[in-house]
Design goal:
This is Acyl-CoA dehydrogenase. One of its GO terms (molecular function) is acyl-CoA dehydrogenase activity. InterPro entries: ACX4-like (IPR045008), Acyl-CoA_DH_CS (IPR006089), Acyl-CoA_Oxase/DH_mid-dom (IPR006091), Acyl-CoA_Oxase/DH_mid-dom_sf (IPR046373), AcylCo_DH-like_C (IPR036250), AcylCo_DH/oxidase_C (IPR009075), AcylCoA_DH/ox_N (IPR013786), AcylCoA_DH/ox_N_sf (IPR037069). 49% of the residues lie in helices and 14% in strands. It is an alpha+beta fold. It has three domains: 114 residues, Acyl-CoA dehydrogenase/oxidase, N-terminal domain (Butyryl-Coa Dehydrogenase, subunit A, domain 1, Orthogonal Bundle); 102 residues, Butyryl-CoA Dehydrogenase, subunit A, domain 2, CATH 2.40.110.10; 147 residues, Butyryl-CoA Dehydrogenase, subunit A, domain 3, CATH 1.20.140.10. The strands form two sheets. Strands 1, 2, 3, 4, 5, 6 and 7 form a seven-stranded mixed β-sheet that branches. A hairpin with a 5-residue loop joins β4 and β5.
């Protein structure tokens, strides 16, 4: 009698949605998310490491992103697809699950730049700019951070705006501005010398005298995103390009509240990508005659990583629900950004540890997530600054200088 071998059961596919969070979306929303995932896995994943290594942006992918019809998700009218904040968050998470740079490019354009016009622009400005931006015919950036002013932006920008008739004269510099070396328009925030209040301006990069950009070189995180230093040298902007609804830094804060929660979603996606790559590696990498996924210490790492991801997913889902209900406050967004990025940092570090020496090689992907997480950890408010926003809300005392 011939002895037959019992086939080994197939291993579970890496899946970072342990609590089936995606099931809270409608079927229509899940269909959109599936299209995003397919695009990211078939068009972005095979090429993104090479672009990262070469510090280049994949312009050839823009038509594919355009066809997804997701730019401006969450905004109604003006050529935008509409949709909920929850769906927008899931899209951010799905983009970052494959690459945080693509997610950042998308967030800067669709969230920061378009959001500034949507929330603070006049009807005429919305009609003029948002439709071509939703079609990615015009790409924007968001110029708030300065060489000498990062966390202290609310306390006073050094970039100034001075009005002369129907023209504003802008002078100063902006730094770390994603998309700026190549995009079409910049949302520039400057302090009006007349009333000392922060105001927003739409600056057309390629046709405005006195506007120049220098690309920031030698980054070790988010290398696909092109960041720049913008210099405004007596840059003349018409009154028609001043965001009519933005009269103080408080108005700027409306945009930052939305995008801060976006970064929380993005950091969850970054954690998911690192976890899934680490799990797949552990299932196939053998040491001492068996896959390392069968070792207790590796399984402990994976369980902790999954716990970080799942807790963060639950937090950002509730955050989006608060936004859609009109209940979102600065402290809600700040707690999520601080918490999720800290958990992300722990998760990508564990992924890198599981891979051992291969964890520093781009070919295995985890190194890219590990490096990119450092940028997500810092931008849209450091952990310390966001913690102080939460601290003030819960204690009633301000600990800011």
């Amino acid at each position: 009698m011939t002895e037959t071998k019992t086939s080994q059961p197939s291993l579970p596919a890496p899946d970072s949605d342990f609590y089936l969070i995606h099931e809270i979306l409608s079927e229509e929303e899940r269909a959109i998310l599936r299209r995003v995932r397919q695009f990211m896995e078939t068009s972005v994943a095979p090429v993104i490491n090479q672009y990262w290594a070469e510090d280049r942006f994949p312009f050839d992918l823009i038509p594919g992103i355009r066809e997804l019809n997701i730019v401006g998700i969450g905004f109604k009218g003006y050529g935008c697809p509409g949709g909920s904040t929850l769906l927008d968050g899931f899209i951010a998470m799905e983009l970052a699950r494959v690459d945080a740079s693509i997610a950042t490019f998308y967030g800067v354009h669709s969230g920061l730049a378009m959001g500034s016009i949507y929330l603070g622009g006049s009807e005429e400005q919305k009609q003029k700019w948002l439709p071509p931006m939703a079609r990615l015919e015009k790409v924007g950036c968001f110029g708030l951070t300065e060489p000498l002013v990062g966390s202290g932006a609310g306390g006073g920008l050094l970039t100034t705006a001075r009005r002369e008739g129907d023209t504003w004269i802008l002078n100063g510099q902006k730094r770390w501005i994603g998309n700026s070396p190549w995009c079409d328009l910049s949302i520039i925030w400057a302090r009006d010398v007349a009333d000392n209040q922060v105001k927003g301006f739409i600056v057309e990069n390629k046709t405005t005298p006195g506007f120049s950009v220098e690309k920031i070189e030698r980054k070790v995180a988010l290398r696909v995103v092109q960041n720049g230093v913008i210099t405004l040298d007596n840059c003349r902007v018409p009154e028609a390009n001043r965001l009519q609804g933005d009269l103080s830094f408080r108005d700027t804060g409306r945009v930052l509240r939305l995008t801060r929660q976006y970064v929380a979603w993005e950091s969850v996606g970054c954690s998911m990508g690192a976890y899934e790559h680490a799990l797949k590696y552990a299932q196939t990498r053998e040491q001492f005659g068996k896959p390392i996924a069968s070792f207790q210490m590796v399984q402990d790492h994976l369980a902790k990583m999954l716990g970080n991801i799942t807790a963060s997913q639950c937090m950002v889902v509730r955050l989006a629900q608060l936004q859609d209900q009109g209940k979102l406050k600065d402290q809600h967004a700040s707690l999520a950004k601080a918490f999720c990025t800290v958990r992300m940092r722990e998760t990508v570090a564990s992924a890198r540890e599981i891979l051992g020496g291969n964890g520093i090689v781009l070919d295995y992907n985890v190194a890219r997530f590990f490096a990119d997480s450092e940028a997500l950890y810092s931008y849209e408010g450091t952990r310390e600054m966001n913690s102080l926003i939460v601290g003030k809300a819960v204690t009633g005392f301000s600990a800011f200088v």
